[in-house]
Write a structure and sequence with these properties.
The chain has one domain. The protein has 1 helix and 5 strands. β3 and β4 form a beta hairpin. The longest helix has 14 residues. The model has no long low-confidence stretch (mean pLDDT about 90).
Length: about 70
């Protein structure tokens, strides 16, 4: 089991991500993602699984256009 990373992308540059947090527990990162979404004004954001090549990741898309994702090594 590796380290999980929570990254965020701004709506103006969705290909460029910024590291928000690292943790061994993806559940902790999911909660942190909800807190960030609420701070951006999106109370109803939900995590969704997305395929990314051979791997999958969790993605949280906010109404503001920001996108959060939990990725692994």
């Amino acid at each position: 089991m590796g380290i999980f990373r929570l990254v965020i992308a701004h709506p103006r540059s969705p290909e460029t991500t910024r590291l928000v947090a690292e943790h061994l527990d993806p559940g902790w990162l999911k909660q942190r993602g909800y807190e960030i979404a609420r701070s951006l004004g999106d109370q109803g954001a939900l995590w969704k699984a997305e395929a990314q090549g051979q791997a999958s990741r969790l993605a949280l898309n906010c109404r503001t256009g920001h996108a959060l994702a939990i990725v692994t090594d």
